[in-house]
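quick one if you have a minute, typing this from the bus. below you get a single protein, a line of residues and a line of whole numbers that encode the local backbone shape. could you go over both lines and see whether the tokens make sense for that sequence. anything you notice is useful, everything is just below.
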Amino acid sequence: MKTIMMSPLAAAAVMEESKDFVNGLDTLWVLLGAMLVFWMQPGFALVEAGLTQSKNTANILMKNFVDFMMGSVLFWVLGFSLMYGAGNAFFGWEGFGFIGADSNVPAECSFVFQTVFCATTATIVSGAMAERTKFSMYVLYSLLISALIYPIEGHWSWGGGWLSALGFHDFAGSTVVHLCGGALALAGAIVLGPRIGKYDKNGKSRAIPGHNLVLCSLGVFCLWLGWFGFNPCSTVAATGYANAVCMAHVFVTTNMSAATGGIAAMVYTWVVDGKPSLSMLCNGVLAGLVGITAGCDCVDIWAAALIGVVVSVAMCFSVSFVDKTLKVDDPVGAVSVHGVGGLLGTILAGVLANPKYGVEVNVGVQALGAGVVAVFAFGAGFTLFSVIKKLCGLRCDRRIEEEGLDVYEHGETCYN
């Protein structure tokens, strides 16, 4: 994903000239992508609501609204400047309210496209910390993720920072968005602790079933559709033969990885558990989508299919490992889908990239970039959540958790 940025003075100097090279079709393509990626927000809301208990549905829907609202404001006030402003190898800065300068698309077009990506990162964290987090504290850490954590690590890869200088390749965000969100989710779930009743006195995991797999399934379909904006529209251009070919190829690889990811999870649960699991199939599709996002522009179709299978099977193993071995309660599997999927997908892009697509990808640089972002996001998240827990209290009271956050936190429910 490339976004051309200039300082305010340089932007003013080329304002008249920019009228000549801003392209209407490119602009329409990027704005369409922003609309599709925004559609992922209700997708995440439905998945999270469906995989958790009905007594917390209003709380979960509220959090997904908050992610986008806070992300929109804070990314404009501060985050976009840190991520894309002129600066050094570690962060940028062009002042408050910076939205860049025109390139082949207007500056505001680039800004809104990046805003919907920012909101996605914060939303990933919501699922892993569902059903026991104070709403007020959720608002606080969503604000800080959108304003600071995501923009800083995003600058390293997409804003001209040190990872981009090394040749790190993350076309649409397996690492920048999903691995970052997954690492933050892991940190938050650890600091927060498991839901009441999740583990017995001997530490054995107990299932707490979600209340509506219809919502979860519809959410995954929404996300699958939204990913056709997330990945193909990250070309940020639609004119010319090369862009047309790239757009079409990214559509195919994105869909193929999602399909094989879902198939792999279905077969895995059928073999291991004796019955194919709908909830795991849904997460398998999402894992395939996360995994292909880094290299969707530079791998062959067969490689995309392989990435979907590998990442999905790894996700299935990870869900059990996180739950039963680490004793970390992740109600929706966000750590495994986004964290593990993002990590493996980024590395596999280096392993399977085909030079014929015009992109040189080094597997060592891919592993380094993914590892550094994971460590940074986990460390920043663990520190953030620990400070909030110490100073303000991160978790809601026992009675509220047992009876449901909807009534006590919001005074209304989604079900009568």
